[in-house]
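Take a careful look at the sequence and tokenised backbone pasted below. I need to know what the token row says about the fold.
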Amino acid sequence: SNDNLWRVIRSIVNSSTAPANAVNFSILIIDNSQRATAKAVFEQAIQTYAFIDIEYLTTPQNNMGLARSMAIEHSKTEWVAFVDSDCIVGCDWLLNLLIAFRREKSKNQKLCAVGGSNCAPSDQSDFYAAVELMKKVIWGNLNSTQLKVTAGDKKDKYVDHLRTTNVLYERQAVLNVGNFSVLNRVVGEDL
């Protein structure tokens, strides 16, 4: 919903502009709805956060792979971080992803992405509590490393696949492999 999208934009801005963890960033909203439902939120965001470069694009069809691909193509930065409109990022989200990427890239030059856990906020509805419970079983976490991690789990793991939410990619590495496939229209909630 637009309320969720507004909350995630606010959380990104708050996590990335605080003096202790200020990061140079821009926001690219890819509206993956044929009804252009996020346009009003975009207009509110550019007025509220005029000091941040915020762009808005729509996909010609509801297609998760195409939306991710458009983000990579239109980004002007070295890294691209993905978060979904139903997520709220933590107070140091982007900074932690950048620190982890730089640290791990110095150890492994083949590294192209880092991701974090996907945990529902503890103060959310019964629905989010049920989602957290489902993630603990294989049919609920779809064998995703990110979804199996619980809040507070700080152990780093190398994996072959990351879901595309709460993840930071080296943009050029994604372009080098041909970007996201538009054949991945919907795979669970994320690619």
Remarks:
- The beta strands are 27-31, 54-58, 79-82, 113-115, 167-170.
- Helices lie at 2-17, 39-48, 64-74, 93-107, 126-134, 138-141, 145-148, 171-176.
- The two ends are 20 Å apart (CA to CA).
- The longest strand covers residues 27-31.
